[in-house]
Fold these 3 entries.
Entry 1:
Amino acid sequence: MKSKLLLLVLSAFIVSCTQKQELTQKEKDQIKSEVKSAVDNILAKFEKLDPSLVSECYWDSQDFIEISVDGSKADFQTSKKGTSDFLSAAASIKLALTQEDYKCLSKDIVVCAWMGKEKITLKTGEAITISPLITTLIFKNIEGRWKAIYLHESGTETILPAGKK
């Protein structure tokens, strides 16, 4: 009898530990607000040509993945160097988001998708427009901060030589 009771209690404990905890709407709204703040920080750093963008906003791990508009794949270190080189070559960047969507998968994981347009002017005078620009980010709460652990961009890129409008 004791073994059956112990088995029943143990089974109930295992089931309660493995059941997915549903977030309340208030919790989801709070998480979305926090992640939106992290996204706004990424966008602001990008437009300010701030090279600390990657190290402050992305997960410093070999498991970080970035897929760029050109289809290339990068880990954290490659993304950090590529972003720094790109921001050094840019004279200005303007992003215009037309749509944002946030999906809370858990208390610690959020998927963010946005659509918009990006205009880049390089120091050489070349102008790059990406429209539409579709970006998907997966954020994870790491030590109390929302960090992008996955980034995938796609879009249609148009490059105009210097002096052309």
Entry 2:
Amino acid sequence: MKQKIKIALVTAVIITSFGSCKQEKQELGPKASQVDGIVNNWILTKVDQIDVNVELAFQESDTLLDVSEAILTSIPMEVNIYGDGTYTFTDGDGRNMFDSLNTGTWGFDNDEYPSMIVFNKGTNQESNYPLIRPVRPQDPYLAIKYNKFCGDNRIVSYHLWFTRK
């Protein structure tokens, strides 16, 4: 009889200890707004070049080469993206990758799930730059892709990395 009581007591202790180890559910909180995340002053700090015509590469990133030292030789360019939907570019190294964009309006292709930023210089000519990664308020980088074309053929791509100022 004493043996049965001991077994029952040990079983009760084990069952109670497993029940008390239950983990609390954690919540992620609200989704970060990428529109809020991109509004800032950004400085071009890194440039990666991708040769898109290499046929042996499995992915585009297999041919990635950091060319920051060749392009960013003195003062890097800046882009100021404002919450009212406008932007301004300042002169500096890397500025030639943004055509004749000086000031205008900006927007995402989709504010909830953006895949590219669209700059409009006010002449109904839009310049689209695909986003390499999301840009949330807590992210220190804005990474976009610049494609260089010869006619209709893309000859080289650049990953442009901007850092919050």
Entry 3:
Amino acid sequence: MLSKFVKLKNNKNMKNTLSQLLFLALAFFIISASSCEKEKEPDLVPITTTGANTMGFYVDGVPHNKKGQSTWSDVYGVRGGVSEEDVLHIYGGGGNPKVTIVIDLHIDINNPLQEYDLNGSDWDKNRITIIDDSPLGGKEYRCDSIHNGKLTLLRLEQNMAAGTFYFDAINPETGKVIHVTDGRFDIQFF
């Protein structure tokens, strides 16, 4: 009779242990699942129109962010302006990974907030250049009639410009094509 009592007690202990293990496993699963729901930091700077001095874009899926105001002697950051010939100049350089992007685009000064073609059709009024950070000084990529894109101006004032862009560009020496997507800029002119 005593052995039957010990077996019953062992069965109860076994059931309690199994219940506790099941409870721990369930608790671990719930905690693990909830920690996966944490907000992931965005890859690119946000789209803004406040003069934040930012630029962000993907090159073949790799995020690039440019922050802070660049000067003509400092290549890190962003800068821009509008010339007397109504050419919008946008520049973003530096960052990690390092890529430099230059867009010179003739705009309609009477109706600037619109979508513009980026096709490299005119060297000084529709020029899009991107230079990567390769070991021998960088490879240059340009838009042309086949490799092109769009830029949409969201805000243009005397002292700032903001908008979005995307384009494909080709390296004329190698024929390699890159895809620039989800571009955004918000630049205060100096």
